[in-house]
Every structure is written in C-alpha cells, then in structure tokens.
Specification:
This protein is α/β, with parallel strands linked by helices. The protein has a domain of 161 residues: Glycerol-3-phosphate (1)-acyltransferase (3-Layer(aba) Sandwich), CATH 3.40.1130.10. The chain is 43% helix and 13% strand. It has 9 helices and 6 strands. A 6-stranded mixed sheet has the order 3-2-4-1-5-6, with helices on both faces. The radius of gyration is 20 Å and the shape is elongated.
Length: 231
C-alpha cells in the first residue's frame, strides 16, 4: 500500500465516522413525526444546527397538542423558518412565495414538508384556499404576516390581511411570536451560515372574529414588531 492510498483510506474512514456522528445526532434531536424517516432526520439535523450553531435555547413554542392553529412571526432572515421548526413539537406548514418554492434543488424539500406556494402577482386566493384547508384539517400554519423580510429599522409596513381572514374563517387561534438575535438579519443564505444567538419570545393566544380583522392585525403587529410590553 502506498502512502497516498493510506491517506485516502484514512480520509474515507474519517468521513464515514463524521457521517455516522451526524446521523446519530439527527436521530437523537428529531422530535416531530413528519411522516417520513428522511424528513425526521432532516428535522433532527435542523434542530442540531439551530441549537449548536445558532445557540437557540432548547425551548418550545406552546402550540395546542391538536387542532388547527396559526403561528404568526416577524420575518428577519432566511433562518427564520428553520428556527420555528426547531422550536415546535408539531409539523409546521409555511406559506412561501412561489419563486422561493421553486428554488433549484429545494423544491422537493418544500413540497415534502407541505409548504404552500403563494402567487404574489397572480392568484393569491388559491394559496389562501389551501391554507384554509390546512387549518380545517387540524394542522399548524406558519405565516410571516409582513409578506417578506422586514426589519425593525425598516419603514412601517402593514401586515397582510390573510392571517386575520384565515383565523376568522376557521376560529383558529393565532400564536404570535418574535425572533431576535439573528446575526444575518436581512439576508437569506448568509443568515443560515453566520453564527447567531437566536431567541424566541411567544405571546398569549389571539382570537380573531370575522368583523374585527383590523383590531386583530393591530394586536399581531404590536407583538411581532416588539412594541408590546407584557405585564
């Protein structure tokens, strides 16, 4: 055996050991049944990344054990959905822009976890109907009501009305939460790679009646934008 062959063998062994370590950690950290072993491993790997790289405390968003509900959160980066998934003990279904849904190499993942693509310039009502069915089936719908990345330093932006409309149509409770501590605010991929110290603040459940959408949106906005002071 030559020296070069020996180095190759050692590298292969080290890679196999590293992959085995990642596999074992993914199995250990997986907390949610996504209906697929592969997606369970991805769930565990995502939690590992959020806990170790982004220093998310092992905290959980208080979701109802069953039944449809809406998780409404501020949107500061591409890391946000990964953190929400890591902090939830139920599968989350996200509403995302069609152009994000069709990103090369990621469509299989978005489809597998049940993301709902939204046509921003086409027929957004189709996505709302799918979201309505999702809630009626008792699933958790995760929404970024600003509609896109929006930082605290950005000019004020009204929330999309869909979150209040969906809650009014289904009587689904809204759980507002706020993400802070993301190092790559304003970025998509960079925020996933940069080390953060992420924190999630959750608030009391909000119930929206069909005739109080404006008040409901104001309540959500106040909380996810950090303007609400808990007593």
């Amino acid at each position: 055996m030559t020296t070069q062959q020996g180095i190759v063998i050692v590298v292969i062994i080290l890679v196999c050991l590293a992959l085995w370590w990642v596999y074992r950690k993914a199995v250990k950290y997986n907390e949610v049944d996504w209906g697929s072993r592969w997606f369970g491993l991805i769930d565990g790997l995502n939690r590992l990344i959020c806990y170790r790289l982004h220093r998310l405390q092992p905290q959980h968003i208080e979701l109802p054990e069953q039944g449809g509900c809406i998780l409404a959160c501020n949107h500061v980066s591409g890391l946000d959905p990964l953190v929400l998934i890591a902090a939830a003990r139920r599968p989350l279904r996200f509403m995302i822009a069609r152009e994000e849904y069709e990103r090369f190499g990621l469509q299989w993942l978005f489809r597998g976890v049940g993301c709902i693509p939204v046509e921003r310039s086409g027929r957004p009502e189709l996505a709302l109907r799918e979201a309505l069915r999702t809630l009626q089936m008792g699933e958790v719908l995760a929404i970024f009501p600003h509609g896109k990345i929006h930082l605290d330093s950005d000019p004020a932006r009204k929330l999309k009305k869909g979150v209040a409309w969906l809650a009014g149509q289904t009587n689904a409770p809204i759980i507002p939460c706020r993400l802070t501590g993301v190092s790559g605010e304003g970025h998509t991929l960079l925020s996933v790679l940069m080390r953060s110290r992420v924190n999630i603040e959750t608030f009391d459940i909000i119930h929206c009646e069909q005739d109080t959408n404006g008040e409901c949106l104001d309540e959500i906005s106040c909380r996810i934008e950090g303007r609400f002071k808990q007593e």
